[in-house]
Amino acid sequence: MIEKIENVTRIEVSKFRFSVNIYLIDDILIDTGFPRTAEELLNYLKNKKINKIVNTHGHIDHIGGNSVIQKYFRCKIYLYSIERKYTTLKRIIFGTPEKFSSENLPEKIKTEKHSFDVLYTPGHSKDHITLFENKEKLAFSGDLVLHGEAREVSNEVEIYKAIDSLKKLKSLKPEKIFPGHGDIFHGYEVLDKKINYLEDLGEKILKLHEEGKNIKEIVKIVFGGERFPYIFTKKYFSAENLVKSYLTDKVLNC
Ligand SMILES: [Zn+2]
Which segments of the chain are extended strands (E)? Predict the structure, then answer.
């Protein structure tokens, strides 16, 4: 699916029940979808000009087309580099990413018409960045701001960092937020909602923990137990991870 939002093109690609957004603004491509959708993306981009790819983070659904696009356009790829291994399950579903070469992210990324600040916004993952265009107040936020309420998360999630990153983005008052999945957000009210939800959830979890409840009990009380993703992803995505993140980070903070 292709959607134009003023000078931004949103390209949404899907694999099974999963979909992800890729954004084209001027000659920059922000994220590249799944390995298995790389050819489809390239077909759409062939008559366009791509000078740079920027990845919001290194998850398989955001870097999957890097190699194919880089080979065709000979463009540079910028990402916050960390060593990553993709699980067999992910590779079966989404494909295996081919090798690509990448550069360290500069503080700013410029095009003819725009200048983007590279904001470090960890929480969803350690390598997560947001591109922020200050003139038009556009935020390309990867998986920092997702639709729906956080419930099942991966064990990479550091919840207090995620809350700080949301606050950092809110302080810049974005007018449009372009997420990695789903429709764009107008205004930054969504950030207030997310921050409030996550802070309230944290209070609830910590209170139950102080009352002596264990992680499984807390999951049951707060979320009514684990759901389908827990089994399907062999615990990779779980409510337990979210509860643990509130507790582990808190212990470390003390
Ligand atoms: Zn992600």
Answer: 2-5, 8-15, 18-25, 28-30, 52-54, 76-78, 108-110, 115-120, 129-133, 138-142, 176-179, 185-186
Span from the CA of 148 to the centroid of ligand 1 (angstroms): 15
Nearest to residue 34, comparing CAs of 181, 152, 141? 181
What CATH number belongs to 2-199?
A: 3.60.15.10
Residue 126: pLDDT over 90: yes
Which are the contacts of 71, defined by CB distance < 8 A and separation ≥ 6? none
Cα 123 to ligand 1 centre (Å): 10
CA of 124 to the centre of ligand 1 (A): 7
Sign of CA pseudo-dihedral 246, 219, 169, 86: positive
Written as one string, the DSSP assignment of 121-135 is: --SS-TT-EEEEETT
Domain residue limits, the chain: 2-199
Number of Cβ within a 10 Å radius of residue 115: 12
Taking the centre of ligand 1 as the mean of its atom positions, its distance from the CA of residue 155, in whole angstroms, is: 12
The pTM score is 0.93
Q: Can you tell me the distance from the alpha carbon of 43 to that of 128, in angstroms, rounded to the nearest whole number?
A: 28
Model pLDDT for residues 38-94, shown as the tens digit of each residue: 999 999 999 999 999 999 999 999 999 999 999 999 999 999 988 888 888 888 888
- What residues does the ion ligand 1 have nearby, CB within 5 Å? 59, 143
Q: Using CA atoms, how far apart are residues 11 and 22, in angstroms rounded to an integer?
A: 5
User: Lowest mean pLDDT: which of 117-126, 194-203, 233-242?
Assistant: 233-242
Q: What 3-state DSSP class applies to 173?
A: coil
Mean pLDDT of the chain: 93
